[in-house]
Design brief:
By secondary structure, the chain is α+β, with helices and mostly antiparallel strands. It folds into 2 domains: 2-48 and 300-431, no CATH class; 55-292, no CATH class. The chain is 49% helix and 20% strand. The protein has helices spanning 2-10, 14-49, 61-64, 143-146, 176-181, 221-227, 248-253, 262-269, 274-284, 294-336, 338-346, 350-389, 399-414, 416-423, 427-431, and strands spanning 56-60, 68-69, 72-73, 83-84, 100-113, 116-123, 127-130, 138-141, 151-154, 170-175, 189-194, 197-208, 217-220, 233-234, 236-241, 288-292. The protein is elongated. The two termini are 24 Å apart.
Length: 434
């Protein structure tokens, strides 16, 4: 009997049922799309933010520790220390190797050009490297991969090692402010003099960063090392890593991993926090210290948290709007079917039977709306991801049952007020005029 009544009631008031179905599907689609994107947005936004520079810098352990005499910091007076250049690839050879997106070694020296003392930095511009011996797959990394948004007037230099170089001078980039001071422009030949010798560089382009690099000259690492009399060493390694924002607890505890309890240490070390990635790099590269560039890391964390909060807020508002629409449609339906519900109560159905009928109808509509919303949400998530990030989002199989569960939750939330109205109906008042 109940099934027959339910079947007949589903095919009546088709407009009301369509409104409920559409509202549930729309609310579920919005929630599902934001849910699918939320699972991928962290990595995608973090990858976008990596375009603004490195979030880790690896330096020799000796140069990372401050030297204080009489309360004054005299670290700048000590002799420079270096890391071996043949160990640079070890920053990628650790537990978090898949999270290391790009890196570039840097050798800092002082030189003279046209009578002025300038900072000269040897680095990789854009160099293909093989991570595994005998592997055909190569990673393209360097300062250009770390900073793809640098503005370069002219061309990026050819990144060639000493073995690959011809007799022509090595190419270099000159910072915008330094180019005004010297002056220099693309195509010029600059004579650089250091304490170890002299060398020439052809200016390939003028770059602008808005930071201190605008006052420096960037040249191939091997050429600068030979010019400064320091071949085979680097001053630091800039690293861009894909990370997860640190919570306040792990940010505090992660500063000294040795003090963590074993369970907390395992959880911390298996989460791609910027501090845990720094810890693994230090293990892979003996004699080094990986320092977090907090300005970059904290900015990434704040942006990701705000985006996640905004997406959660929009999803909740969409679900609330759908629930209110369902409430309105079902309340109107209850008012129109008062006589029917009164008759059912008079025949002994009781509040539980009548409310059960309403909930069964809502469950069927919620299930149908959830399945439709899950499909629409997947399409919406893909479209939004392509529009914002330029890549498609990964739709996980778990998203479909979650979307259906969300649809049922929206539908049952919309049934609360109509169910209370049904329970207040009195059969004798409704049937008096019949």
């Amino acid at each position: 009997m109940f099934v027959r009544i339910l079947r007949d009631s589903l095919f009546r008031q088709k407009r009301r049922k369509a409104v409920v179905l559409f509202s549930v599907a729309l609310g579920t689609a919005a929630a599902a799309a934001l849910g699918d994107m939320a699972l991928d947005v962290g990595d995608k936004v973090s990858r976008e933010l990596k375009a603004f520079g490195a979030n880790l810098v690896v330096v020799p352990r000796e140069s990372a520790r401050p030297i204080r005499i009489g309360g004054e910091d005299v670290s700048s007076l000590r002799l420079p220390s270096y890391l071996p250049a043949d160990q640079v690839l070890k920053v990628k050879d650790n537990f978090w190797k898949n999270n290391i997106l790009a890196f570039a070694p840097v050798l800092d020296v002082r030189g003279k050009a046209r009578g002025r003392t300038i900072p000269v930095r040897g680095t990789w511009f854009e160099r293909p490297i093989a991570l595994d011996a005998g592997s055909q797959e190569k990673l393209l990394t360097g300062i250009r991969s770390l900073n793809p948004y640098w503005s370069v007037r002219g061309n990026w230099p050819e990144d060639r090692t000493l073995e690959e170089r011809s007799a022509d001078p090595a190419e270099a980039l000159v910072g915008a402010r330094l180019a005004e001071i010297l002056p220099a422009r693309p195509g010029d030949l600059l004579e650089i003099e250091t304490s170890a010798g002299k060398g020439s560089f052809r200016v390939a382009g003028i770059f602008t960063t808005g930071d201190e690099e605008d006052e420096a000259l960037l040249a191939p690492l091997e050429a600068v090392g030979r010019l400064a009399g320091r071949p085979g060493v680097v001053s630091r390694i800039l690293v861009s890593a894909l990370t997860t924002p640190e919570t306040a607890v792990y940010e505090r505890l992660g500063k000294n991993p040795k003090d963590l309890p074993p369970a907390e240490f395992e959880k911390w070390s298996c989460t791609p926090f910027v501090s845990s990635i720094a810890y693994e790099i230090e293990k892979a590269l003996p004699g080094s210290e990986a320092k977090v560039i907090r300005r970059v890391a904290e900015s990434e964390g704040r942006v990701l948290q705000r985006i996640s909060g905004l997406m959660l807020l929009i999803a909740l508002l969409a679900a609330l709007g759908a629930a209110l629409t369902v409430t309105s449609a079902l309340t109107t339906s209850v008012l129109e079917r008062r006589s029917e519900f009164g008759l059912l109560k008079a025949m002994g159905a009781g509040n539980s039977g009548v409310v059960g009928l309403l909930l069964a109808e809502a469950a069927i509509l919620g299930l149908a709306g959830g399945l439709a919303g899950a499909g629409a949400g997947a399409l919406m998530a893909r479209w939004l991801s392509v529009s914002v990030f330029g890549t498609t989002v990964s739709i996980r199989p778990l998203s479909v049952p979650l979307a259906v569960a969300a649809a049922l939750a929206i539908t049952f939330a919309g049934c609360i007020l109509p169910a209370r109205r049904i329970m207040r109906l009195r059969p004798f008042e409704l049937l008096r005029g019949l």
